[in-house]
Amino acid sequence: xxxxxxxxxxxxxxxxxxxxxxxxxxxxxxxxxxxxxxxxxxxxxxxxxxxxxxxxxxxxxxxxxxxxxxxxxxxxxxxxxxxxxxxxxxxxxxxxxxxxxxxxxxxxxxxx
Amino acid sequence: xxxxxxxxxxxxxxxxxxxxxxxxxxxxxxxxxxxxxxxxxxxxxxxxxxxxxxxxxxxxxxxxxxxxxxxxxxxxxxxxxxxxxxxxxxxxxxxxxxxxxxxxxxxxxxx
Lengths: 112, 111
Description:
The structure holds 2 protein chains of 2 kinds. Chain A is an all-beta fold. In chain A, about 0% of the residues lie in helices and about 50% in strands. Chain A contains no helices and 11 strands. In chain A, the strands form 2 sheets. In chain A, strands 2, 4, 5, 6, 9, 10 and 11 form a 7-stranded mixed β-sheet that branches. Chain A has a 4-stranded antiparallel β-sheet with strand order 1-3-8-7, with no helix packed on it. Chain A is globular, with a radius of gyration of 13 Å. The mean pLDDT of chain A is about 95. Helices cover about 0% and strands about 55% of the residues of chain B. Chain B contains no helices and 11 strands. In chain B, the strands form 2 sheets. In chain B, strands 2, 4, 5, 9, 10 and 11 form a 6-stranded mixed β-sheet that branches. In chain B, strands 1-3-8-7-6 form a 5-stranded antiparallel β-sheet, with no helix packed on it. In chain B, β7 and β8 form a beta hairpin. The interface of A and B includes residues 41, 43, 90 and 100 of A.
């Protein structure tokens, strides 16, 4: 089944404890992206990648890191999480510039 | 960068009526405009999209129109049903290849 898989689905962590949210797609998509969703603010792009080893900042990149060492994987790293990073995170992938994103199931992160 | 404005933020209609959601964008080089539906607790799902070389696209009860001159595009849902109730997002892909979303419209279809 074609899909974008994120893990974990839910995560509660403490301020400052490094964490990684994994994202993997099995559709051979070129583009991958991370969004955060907060009430009233819609979906805001954190980072995106147009191909292996090619990444760029989105609208809200502060406090996040990404890497794209393989085409299928695009992990999101929070080196020192803070409470303002409590949010619902979505990973997404697409074939290219004129195609829509397929979203993962989301990761609900709480930082206390 | 691209800026996408979406209106209204909430929309309530009676079952069987039509619903229209409007978006404007700022980057004249934007060339791809998808619409997503997000049901409560679920992921956003692509329902229809339009590319800049087309003015209108229809898929059963949903249609999207694009006015490149005015830099706005709209989603039209006809004969609405309760299962159409969800949050709808428009988006635009600008010259920097980023996909920027509007803030969403909560559509409620009352039986």
